[in-house]
Design brief:
By secondary structure, the chain is an alpha/beta fold. The protein contains nine helices and 15 strands. The strands form two sheets. Strands 8-9-10-7-11-12-13-15-14 form a nine-stranded mixed sheet. It has a six-stranded parallel sheet with strand order 3-2-1-4-5-6, sandwiched between helices. β11 and β12 form a beta hairpin. α4 runs parallel beside α5 and α7 packs across α9.
Amino acid sequence: MIKIAVFGTGHLGKFHLNNWKEIDGVEICGFFDPNDDNAAAIENQYQIKRFTSAEELMELSDAVDIVAPTLHHFELCEMAIRKGKHVFVEKPLANTMDEARELVKLAKESNLKFQVGHVERFNPAFLALNGYELQPMFIEVHRLAEFNPRGTDVSVVLDLMIHDIDIILHLVKSNVSYISANGVAVMSDTPDIANVRIEFDNGCVANLTSSRISLKKMRKIRLFQKDAYIGIDFLDKKTEVIRLNQPDDKNDFSFDIETNHGVKTIGISNPLIKQTNAIKMELEAFINAIINNHETPVTIIDGFRALDVAHQILEKINSKQH
């Protein structure tokens, strides 16, 4: 039985508690939350012991789940690693790049499992593309959300766009060569809307737009590559693949087009979407990495790279506002 300590039981923390209770081989040994009212409600609802000392709770655990605000990620991750505890931490990895570098160093020196909560990796619309050869050369991303004061302690880049930065870095196996970015703070003190262009050494270009002041929600990525277009709707859990027909393709629909090189067949397919719980899947993956002693699916290096690009974007935005 793996003993899990949960740090932070706000909006997302409650989702984590609900899912931990459904995962076999896991026991929640307690939670830490400095908000007395919230903590009392959690104790009452979940019948889990509240600790007022983070250190005391960590001592009782085998692994920690850090769902606290980003400002506290570093101190809690550092404490956990130094105490020999496996770490799951919500994205972004840390508040600053110096903190992130220190965590990478500490994690490297330890023999512990460390996973960053980039949950879109487990979105069923994205998982449906397993087995497809994805080599995008142009990527277009829109992640739009309605305004919610929760989360505005960080910019839209660290709050929303970082999800897509992680997905793009995961798909494009190449180094970033150039970034240009614009952003505007509308309702809060940090950028609420941002538009970014990322260029890679292999020639791939990604355009990203993130907004938390939209009237409607949208979470879409469009991938364009040689002979194919792939659309992923993370919100409505839909995926479509349109490509020049391959001999072994099983398309839902196809049609012929005349080209200068003769008739070509275009195939349209909608990969099967398995309705899964992304948060539960990422937490299970973390536990499996501990039990089976293999690498976590979203490593600390993945979290570091996404944060590094996010901070480069913020530097570009800030340089235009001074």
